[in-house]
Amino acid sequence: MSRGTSSRAPLLCVFLAAATLAASPARSEPTAFKEGEVLIKFEPNASRGDINSVLGALHATRIKHFGRINAEHERISGISVEEAVRRFRGHRAVAYIEPNYLVHTQAVPNDPSFGDLWGLRNTGQIGGIPGADIRAVDAWNTTTGSDIVVAMIDTGVDYTHPDLAPNIYVNPGEIPGNGVDDDHNGFVDDVHGWDFVNHDNEPRDDLGHGTHTAGTVGAVGDNGLGVVGVCWHVKLMPLKFIGGSLFGEIADAISCIEYATMMHARVMSNSWAGGGFSQALFDAIKDANDSGILFVAAAGNSGADTDIAPLYPADYDIPNVISVAATTASDDKASFSNYGLTSVDLGAPGVQILSTAPNNSYRYMSGTSMATPHVAGALALILSRYPTLSVGDAKKFLLRSTDPIPLLRGVVATGGRLNVARALQGPDTIPPAPIADLRALAIASNRIRLDWTATGDDGTIGAASFYDLRYATFAIDDSNFDTAPRFTAVPSPLPYGFPQEVTVGGLLPSTTYYLAIRAQDRFGNTSPVSNMTSATTLIPPKIDVTPTALAASLSSGGSEARTITVRNLTQGTLDFEIEAVAVPSTGVAARGGSAAKLAPVASEPLPVLSWRDYLHATSAAHATASAVPAASSVAASASAASLPVIITDPVQDSALVDLTQVRASSDDTNLNVEMDFNSAIDRQSFGGFLSLDTDQNRATGVPVPFGNGLQVIGADFEIQFFTLSSGVVSVYHTPTRTFIGTFPVTIGSHSLTFRVPLVALGDDEGSMDVAGVVGDITGPTDWFPDSGHGSVAGVRWVKVMPRVGTVPPGGRSIWIRSARVRCGSLRR
Q1: What secondary structure, in 3-state letters, does 616-630 show?
Q2: CB 334, CB 328: distance < 8 Å
Q3: Could you say which of 154, 307, 776, 782 is catalytic?
């Protein structure tokens, strides 16, 4: 399930997603690429003169033309890769240019200790939960596979292994050993796939990783040897792009995908992952999607939330991509496995997995690498039974058939673990049973609290997929259910028999409402409408406030307390909110009585981050859990300053990304920022951030936010610019690296303009110290200001504690206001 949709600066350090059980979460490695090589694609309307000019400046020699995505792999000289990318990214003739990144493995397999394939049939043999498996045995009662071609894009495969050899792909158009390209596909004697590392027709496995994943997909079944794969009968196409050196090139990964697409594979198994976006790789996978090929990818082994820190290729937003997390024999998420409610689709067994290894052997390995081929094999079984399925339908069959797992709910998109037997059943026709005990528990003037007992997926078995709750001022039944207003904030269904409740708000007082609910399963089967319940909301409240106004005259930094009593004079319920009026100050206000930070406080110091780590910042497509609403974009102005200047930085103190001025101010709602640059802004490769010290700890001084490519701990928040390609800035709480939200940015040719709500910064007055650094994909280039920091003047606030609440019929509430200026107004 993927989120990276737009072209942005690529940074790819790909690893085979296998891990030892004892390994700590994988840490990012320095970015590596092939010196003297680039991947470049020209615009379709580029003139031959412009193309020749670019290639000439690069002193380029073609290594390979990628015919399916119409891109080039070029050897360059007389110019570094970094300079080539900086110089020609954004050129009118260039669609994209990027390094030829190196990819590598980061882990080794576990030693053998158990002898059963618990992922296929879990009997509790390694101490797990019996039945916590993919239901392979039940699936094999339906089909054991056919000649579906699965491309194993990996380290190669030991295609002579006796447990694999009968299931290895054979090119029907090639005559073995005659030295002729019989099928005219550009590859001589490619009988069993291709080795893109050594550029020959023997894609043998140097590491054992690809042989292991191949065995999980399709080791021969019922042959009296070793292990069995998910799909007994399949055609495994070995495509090698990572060699014995542990490194591979992204250009070779693209070549594997193009080859598999050309040779009509139906599924691609990809047990490797990386941390950056490559447009060329995106294009190759998109071409596979357009050709009807499913692309299964490992979610990665860093134990990270990829909604926040995308990992590719699993995070590409392409319909054929399926991202797989690893689960244990106890149906837990493996500790090393990445996760993400929107970025990872499902879980599959990935711990202590026994499979084939080179030289007629077998071994155990763990990782999302091992989970991925379980899913690829399951898709091969699905396509064996339903060979005409489209990519979308096959993916739907797979994802709608998972076993709901409590520990995966809210962790992966489906909340479930692979169940191939259910997927083979095809579209489910059994609807959930009706809910029969819907009732009103509590009533207020503007809301009704309901409860009911959860129904199942198939009748009373399992858990439904979602609820449809309707309310109206007329009686609801089957005939008019769809015409009643829908209440959308309904919880997800729990398994059958569990109690559930919800509060329906936004209702009118003194009004009778009728309510009903129905459940739907993952295949769209809908239960009958529940029993109807009704309730009449209470009468409107009447507010009495004593006193009606307050005032205080205070010196800077002073405070006084005032008491306000609010009474509810009726038998309704009174919901209240107190609005504080802010008065702009003429200077930096002191911060006594500051509101508590919204972001959590770190329990212990976190490791410092490198510049490259920040390139993993989330894009707007991942910002589904923003802590505050996105602010409206504001007009950029690089010519006329509309805000106070807080930082002036020397012109041309950086030859690359060169900031000249920062203007900023706070109002009663937002921190408003305008930034001007001497250099043109390339949103695809722009990086950096503003460090905000909202505590203004001048006793120790504000640290320079970035030095020598390492994060400096000290600031409270960071406004990150690594997501400009998505038209947003991203805000993080620095001490804990908690993601706060994304906010729109207006990007001019030499300017950035944006605003961040003060509530997102856990701030009450907007007084803060500011420092920053900007750069590109190669690293930081311009620290600012040279003096250490700039200051934003704050706004003086009235403090109200608490600010919102409810007063029951006939009750009262009392507030203590810490007042610096006149108090605000009250509203219901």
Answers
A1: CCCCHHHCCCCCCCC
A2: yes
A3: 154
Cβ–Cβ under 8 Å, residues 484 and 470: yes
Task: Return the structure tokens found at 647.
Answer: 């930082």
CA atoms of 149 and 258, how far apart (whole Å): 15
Distances (CA, A) of 594 to 147, 795, 818, 822: 67, 12, 10, 17
List the alpha helices (DSSP H) in 127-235.
Answer: 136-140, 209-218
Secondary structure letter of residue 242 according to DSSP: B
**Cα(530)–Cα(432) distance, integer angstroms:** 11
Around 324, how many Cα atoms within 13 Å sit in the side-chain half-sphere?
A: 35
Q: Which of 184-188, 210-214, 407-411, 811-815 has the lowest mean pLDDT?
A: 811-815
Q: How crowded is the C-beta side of 817, counted as CA atoms within 13 Å?
A: 27
Q: Supply the DSSP symbol for 81.
A: H
pLDDT at 287 over 90: yes
Asked if residue 387 has a cis previous peptide bond (ω within 30° of 0), the answer is no
**Could you tell me if residue 801 is left (phi over 0), alpha (psi between -120 and 50 degrees) or otherwise beta?**
beta
- Write the DSSP assignment of 416-481 as a string of letters: EE--HHHHHT-S--PPBPPP---EEEEE-SS-EEEEEE---SBBTBS--SEEEEEEESS---TTTG
777 vs 276: CA distance, rounded Å: 10
Q: Which stretch of DSSP H or E encloses residue 500?
A: strand 499-504
Q: Give the N- to C-terminal CA distance of the chain in Å, as an integer.
A: 43
Q: Which of 28, 366, 369, 665 is catalytic?
A: 369
User: Residues 421, 422, 428, CA angle at the centre, nearest 5°?
Assistant: 150
Beta bridge partners of 450: 440, 502
Is the separation of the CB atoms in 4 and 66 below 8 Å?
Answer: no
Give the residue ranges of DSSP H helices in 39-80.
Answer: 48-58
Which H or E run contains 287? helix 279-290
Residue with tokens 């070779």: 252
725 is catalytic: no
The H or E element spanning position 150 is strand 145-154
User: 321 CB contacts (<8 Å, ≥6 apart)?
Assistant: 1, 2, 285, 289, 295, 297, 313, 314
Q: Region 297-324: what's the mean pLDDT?
A: 91
Q: How far is CA 796 from CA 38, 86, 535, 582, 766, in A?
A: 54, 45, 45, 6, 9
Q: Token match 């020749």: residue? A: 52
Among 424-438, 485-499, 764-778, where is mean pLDDT lowest? 764-778
pLDDT digits (tens, 9 = 90+) for 603-623: 444 555 666 566 554 433 233
Residue 194 identity = W
- Assess whether 479 carries a catalytic annotation: no
Of 192, 209, 374, 789, catalytic: 209
Above 60 in pLDDT, residue 600?
A: no
pLDDT at 728: 86
Instruction: Report the range of poorest mean pLDDT among 179-193, 561-575, 638-652, 689-703.
Output: 689-703
How many Å separate Cα 1 from the centre of its chain? 8
d(CA 1, CA 589): 47
Element (H, E) at 392: helix 391-399
In 3D space, the residue among 377, 142, 118, 441 whose CA is nearest the CA of residue 236 turns out to be: 377
154 noted as active-site residue? yes
CB 690 within 8 A of CB 772: yes
The whole-angstrom separation of Cα 136 and Cα 424 is 10
Please state which of the ranges 238-247, 457-466, 631-640, 711-720 shows the lowest mean pLDDT.
631-640
- Cα 824 → chain centroid: 41
Angstrom distances, CA of residue 126 to CA of 119, 301, 332, 366, 380: 11, 22, 14, 14, 27
